[in-house]
Amino acid sequence: MEINIGMAKSGRRAYGFDDISIVPSRRTRNPDDVDITWEIDAFRFRLPMLASAMDSVLSPATAIEIGRLGGLGVLNLEGLWSRYEHPGPLFEEIAALPAEKATRRMQEIYRAPVIPDLMQQRIAQIGEAGVIAAGALTPQSVERYVDAVLASRLDILVIQGTVVSAEHVTTEGRPLDLYSFIADLDIPVIVGGCASYAGAIHLMRTGAAGVLVGVGPGAACTTRGVLGVGVPQATAIADAAAARIRYLDETGRYVHVIADGGMRTGGDIAKAIACGADSVMIGSPLAAADEAPGLGAHWGMATFHPTLPRGARVMAGRLGSLEQILVGPAHENDGRQNLFGGLRMALATTGYANLKSFQKAEVMVAPAIKTEGKDLQRTQRVGMG
Fold this sequence. Notes:
This protein is α/β, with parallel strands linked by helices. The chain has one domain (39-329): TIM Barrel (Alpha-Beta Barrel). It is built from 15 helices and 16 strands. The chain has helices at residues 60-69, 88-96, 99-109, 116-128, 142-151, 178-183, 197-204, 223-226, 233-251, 266-274, 284-287, 322-327, 339-350, 355-358, 375-380; strands at residues 2-6, 9-12, 20-22, 38-40, 43-45, 49-51, 72-76, 134-137, 156-160, 189-194, 210-213, 256-260, 279-282, 297-298, 314-315, 363-365. Strand 4 (38-40) and strand 5 form a beta hairpin. Helix 1 (60-69) packs parallel to helix 4 (116-128) and helix 7 packs across helix 9. The mean pLDDT is 94.
């Protein structure tokens, strides 16, 4: 339903995860009988998740560990691991920087050139460990580096930017033609971000295996403040899911909707799936892992942009091991550990057997549900307080 912003402008009401709640159905299930596996192209994962292509989250070592736990780590192929042979001291420096100096110093650190040989070494390291190797490149760089990453036997390519469109207009040079580029590749490609029905369906028509949905919801992202652009995640995912249905009707081809950003707890992940996502991409929850290369600090791919940074270095702290955060056991009661145990229990509690059926769950607008009856937790700052 359209709402009048003023006499010359109308708009839609949109919803984030905190605005909605999942409604139980008429049945419940045993959690052990619930299937949360995810398949994309020829690849199958025990967990429906990708770890964000952020230097603070993903190193080759954490990508390997996430793969061992059943998820997919996406390495930032234009990040520190591809610019420096031994980036460890730089991670230590970034984590220790005062807030007022962090952005400027990171811009300096990221001026070092990307080295294709290092890209290949990092991808090979992940693949040789026996897990699926995925890496992310920006649209403006993907044609320059694609031969190098394909030679290193990358399994899945992610083309990722703040907003990626199938129709980029420019008077400077030749824009990336996603249609022909993806058609010429022998590996699946995931493309994003987008946050609208039109943006999603046009990316689907490029031949992408999956689209990333999310503009600005990440914990370290400042896009919504710097650019004023973004859509709350629950609405963005539901709109992209509608585009998926339309595209499937047109072509018979299923394209995966991957919710990217804005999820802090297992409940948030459950809401993303219930709104229509097939899988989720998470960053800040994993930046708080003991193994995370950011050492408790967290930043995104646009934080160090040379002229218009659209991210902040935030402190994610330390929460536990990657295993604890992803699959438990949880020793905290706020939903930030055992994320996918939380998803499994959400399906069981509402009676759904798998992710596809859970996408049909009833959702209601319930902005106060997180605080309803939680006065003691709020005043004592425990649990959901």
